[in-house]
Amino acid sequence: MIDHLAHRIEQAYALRRFGWYRGCSTRRVWAAAAMCLWQAHVEDPTLPLDSELFVASQARAGQLRDPWADLAEVEAARRYRSEVRRIIRGLRRELRREITRAEKRIEEGGRLVVSSLAQDGRLSPLGCFIAAHRKGRPDLADPFASAAMEQHRACPLYQSASLGLLPPDCYPLGASGPVMPAAATRDFKKSIVMN
User: Which is higher by pLDDT, 177 or 75?
Assistant: First the structure.
């Protein structure tokens, strides 16, 4: 696991540091950076083991200077934690706006409410799923369960962002966790819309 993280961190660093010469470092720096990321995850399991996000959280493009200083010190974990929390706050704001909009559509009712929700470009599948669940409408949540799981796989930070908006045991994790059973309906919305 550490070797895999180390390799991914090295690749991400090389992409963000244009013109950086790989011969300026040893494999030890990448292993140390991977251990820093791993330790941050152990101390706070809500932090994903995301090598690319770990590197991106350290400095803006062009400002990275030394992989030891940028990635392998305790400060790197603090910067990563801060960036992840900032992203989660943003996702939570995004979900709240979507849920408010979707709940209004659900309250308006109608035979085509699922189609109306699915066709609204300002709503993500997860936002629709949460709104339907909050309104006590599993029949409306079911068509969005699969796409909401895809949205989670694309960005697992949505799970932390949804805390307080949806009971944790209802979050759509699919086979790896509990979710309302999905009805046999077509997938209304394949794309995930990010506002």
Answer: 75
